[in-house]
Design goal:
This protein is an alpha/beta fold. It has a domain of 255 residues: L-arginine/glycine Amidinotransferase, Chain A, CATH 3.75.10. It is built from 7 helices and 17 strands. Strands 2-1-17 form a 3-stranded mixed beta sheet, with helices on one face. Bound molecules: gamma-amino-butanoic acid. The site of gamma-amino-butanoic acid has 9 residues, from loops. Gamma-amino-butanoic acid binds next to loops.
């Protein structure tokens, strides 16, 4: 469904301005992540995923996920949004750098983890799993084309990380072997990733105009926030932590989701602490606990939490895509004044996420704005 009919413009400053051009992932050839240190931050010790680590996902599950991804892409196209799709590689081959080797790659779902669009720039993130080290290659043809078509586009890449054992906490697996242990580690801000080098998944960054918010957690370290602050030196980069009863926290886009200027929904199992709320409060932002998911469990072979229910794609400040079975989340959005577009998507969840994860912005109307004119000292 590649459509280069319209001339490309790269421009997206936040998560809510009217969306006009987006990348939607594909499930083809996706593999269950091999057993490597980073997965201990997310994949439970008793998860069935561990038995299939490094194997390609079943053809049947890939076909079902692709059907929902294609339908979602078609829905966006019908609404006048240009949709591009990544290039599928042979993800089943072992992959290596001089520092390590793993049994397989991962896939090209979800693009949101790989590409961070800030204004006219698309930045390739490092990612934190070894099996995802080469995933940027799936987007290179698209980025090359955007670069050629839009003379104002900035195409950047964070220094490729080494991802040696020094990048992961050696004691994490053992300390995190129970939920109590995991919650203790989270409360002490001790994550599976160390501070050896800047590493992050792009889905850990929220774009809110002049302010960028980066979760400090299992898939983004403080070095990454520092790197981003120096790189986007005209922005203000804030590091956030989230605490609660969810032992398997991961990305900020299933944690803290801005819907329009002044309004955020927050996963109640991963709350923003009072001290970090202050910036939002003094700028009159409302932080509302997100609705409870309909499902008690994630689908089989899925490592994301049930709060993928809140992982929505905002099409404009009045319209939002929500997973079709998540009627409670839909109702909350309706009460918050949104037109809700239900999108069947649970078959995609095992491939790495929901409606926001499965996309990466290329163009949203709008420009750089300051939504946080009042800043805290320091
Ligand atoms: N982007 C996927 C997030 C999944 C999770 O945080 O549970």
């Amino acid at each position: 469904m590649q459509n280069f009919a319209h001339k490309t413009i790269v421009n997206s400053w936040n998560e809510w301005d009217p969306l006009r051009h987006v990348i939607v992932g594909r499930a083809d050839g996706s593999c269950v992540p091999p057993l490597e240190p980073a997965v201990d931050g997310k994949v439970p010790v008793d998860s069935a995923m561990r038995q299939f680590a490094g194997s390609q996902r079943s053809e049947e599950s890939i076909a079902r996920a692709n059907m929902q991804l294609d339908d979602f892409a078609a829905l966006l196209t019908r609404r006048g949004i240009r949709v591009d799709r990544p290039q599928v590689l042979n993800f089943s081959e072992p992959t290596a750098t001089p520092d390590w080797q793993v049994e397989s790659m991962f896939g090209c779902m979800p693009p949101r983890d790989v590409l961070l669009t800030v204004g006219k720039e698309i930045l390739e993130a490092t990612l934190t799993y070894r099996c995802r080290w080469f995933e940027y290659l799936c987007y290179r043809d698209l980025l090359q084309a955007y670069f050629q078509e839009d003379p104002g586009m900035r195409w950047e890449s964070v220094p490729k990380p080494r991802l040696t054992d020094a990048s992961y906490r050696a004691s994490f697996k053992q300390e995190a072997s129970t939920n109590v242990g995991k919650l203790k580690l989270l409360s002490e801000r001790r994550y599976v990733t160390t501070e050896a080098e800047p590493i992050f998944d792009a889905a850990e960054v929220l774009r809110m105009g002049k302010d960028l918010f980066v979760q400090h957690g299992n898939t983004a370290n403080l070095q990454a926030a520092r790197w981003l602050a120096r790189h986007f030196h005209e922005h203000r980069v804030h590091s956030l932590n989230f605490f609660g009863d969810d032992p398997y926290t991961m990305h900020i886009d299933a944690t803290f989701v801005p819907l329009r200027p002044g309004l955020i929904i927050n996963n109640p199992g991963r709350s923003l602490p009072p001290k970090q709320r202050k910036l939002f409060e003094i700028n009159d932002w409302q932080i509302v606990p997100s609705a409870h998911p309909v499902h008690d469990l994630s689908p089989p072979m899925c490592y994301s939490g049930v709060f993928l229910s809140m992982n929505c794609l905002v099409l404009d400040p009045k319209t939002v895509c929500i997973e079709a079975s998540e009627v409670q989340q839909q109702e909350q959005m309706d009460q918050l004044g949104f037109e809700v577009i239900p999108v069947p998507f649970r078959d995609v969840y095992p491939f790495g996420g929901g409606l926001h994860c499965s996309t990466a912005d290329v163009f949203r109307e709008g420009q750089l704005e300051d939504y946080f004119p009042h800043q805290l000292p320091g």
